[in-house]
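Human: We require from you a standard protein entry with sequence in single-letter code and fold as tokens, and nothing else.

Assistant:
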Amino acid sequence: MVRQPRAGHGRRAFVLDTNVLMHDPAAIFRFEEHDIYLPMEVLEELDAGKKGLSESARNVRQVSRFLDELMANATKEQIDRGLVLPALRPGGTEQAAPGGRLFLQTRRLDSGLPESLPGHGIDRALLGYTLALQRELPDVAVTLVSKDINLRIKAAILGIHAEDYFNDRTIEDADLLYTGLAELPADFWDTHGEQTESWQEQARTFYRLRGPLVREWRVNQFVCASAGNDFEAIVRGISDDTATLELTGDYRSERHAVWGITARNREQNLALNLLLDPDVDFVTILGPAGTGKTLLTLAAGLTQTLDQRRYGEIVMTRVTIPLGEDIGFLPGTEEEKMEPWMGALMDNLEVLTQSQEGGNWGRAATNDLLRSRIRIRSLNFMRGRTFLNRFLILDEAQNLTSKQMKALVTRAGPGTKLVCLGNIAQIDTPYLTATTSGLTYVVNRFRGWPHAGHVTLARGERSRLADFASTAL
């Protein structure tokens, strides 16, 4: 029989798998007033995984430091009774009230696993330890916490309650992710148009309006008419039930093309408004393959780097996770090693230069000029760096964890604009999902900040074949 955790109040005990601590080093502090149990096999796995420069190795070393701080000056009797854990608030700060206790395995427990049960190693040890705790603590709901789906299946078979680690979720459902766009109802102007004010400043048109819907908007969110493209505006300020809107620029016509590129739909036009806005330092663009994320960003970056001289150069990077089998080590410098991962950059540069005059020689010269102003950098060497006056593009951002995303965003110095591109339906990093991706994390955390903006692209514009494949396959 599966032991169900008690709802509401009551003691609970959580046995943590190694992969939970590798994923979030502060996991031992995130279970509020409940107790944490760490089997000796988990400590052995942590010890084996502490070497190296990978993110998981750094997390393991941080876990070891946390444990060392908790055990400082602790006696054997205190360790047996459990080490008091400080509880963390959602923001990461310590609460005044203490959390539960941390119990390390100090004696051998009879697992009671069936002799006929196949398998060995850490999985079997965790299952046996959890079963033993269930017998030893009959009044406590014991739960095994693991990111390993197969281990959770084995636990269910043996009657052990097992859960995934949910604390790193930014939202409960990816479908609820902020889109950056609010469609106005058909009767919007009837309910909100009575006290509307409008004025112009340097060819920019502003509106000030009041009404109940205003409270649901965020700064730098787009609001559009539900039918057609009659009205498109961006929220510039909100005070109680009053909002200040600015009409967006229209980049659909050739006259307002951005480096030869025009917006083909409403969402692309909104994305260009964010990418070209000097007051917006952080832009996130989500969308499936073929919606134009990289092309629009490169065009906006080249315009502001070469024409407007707003930025010194374009820096582009991405996570190096292969789609298929790894092809092994690559020769050359950092930039040469990154080039095979930057096929999207080369493909989009070809689109941006195909209309250049002068034939093949002219296009080649333009390509050389553009590549001299575009730097390709690896994420592995980002720690400690500061990018000044750069247009920084992070491609395939859905493959970053929240901690990796924080490490990258904090590299931005004065005058730098950071653009994160990705598709949360195409995550290749182990243990990451659409709700725990670093891209989802920053979209949610930067929502409403006056210098950040987000838009989700919906329509594919690559080709009719790619558009059909993205929806039918």
